[in-house]
Amino acid sequence: MKKLELIREISRKTQLTQTQASEALETTLNIIKSALSKKEEVKLVGFGSFKVATRKERTGVNPRTKEPITIPTTEVAKFVPGKELREVVNTAPKTGTSKNTTTKNPPPKNTKK
Question: Cα(85)–Cα(11) distance, rounded to whole angstroms?
Fold first, then answer.
């Protein structure tokens, strides 16, 4: 779902105009960004938590030169799903878009010569 689709769905379910729904979503996202910029955790009970995590310094490889490089410590936004969200996701019907393309009974190979 894209942002515009989310705005339309919010508008439809709340009877807000799309402009009002867009403003509400933008305000919510800005509040979350502001809290994260202050290293504050944002907890939405049942949905999940947004927090700032620190990635340790590590060694990587420059793909062009194959030389080892040091990747510095950095802070990243992290989302941890809550229990209710995990349960909803894990009980959602499968859509058949699995990347696993192997089958139990593959079609027979063409043996014509």
Answer: 22
| pLDDT tens digits along 36-86 | 999 999 999 999 999 999 999 999 999 999 999 999 999 999 999 999 999
d(CA 110, CA 65): 45
Task: Check residue 20 and give its pLDDT.
Answer: 97
Q: How far is CA 30 from the centre of its chain?
A: 17
With tokens 């907890």, the residue in question is 43
DSSP state of 104: S
pTM of the model: 0.70
Q: Using CA atoms, how far apart are residues 57 and 73, in angstroms rounded to an integer?
A: 4
Alpha carbon distance 94, 110 (integer Å): 33
Architecture of the domain made up of 41-91: Irregular (4.10)
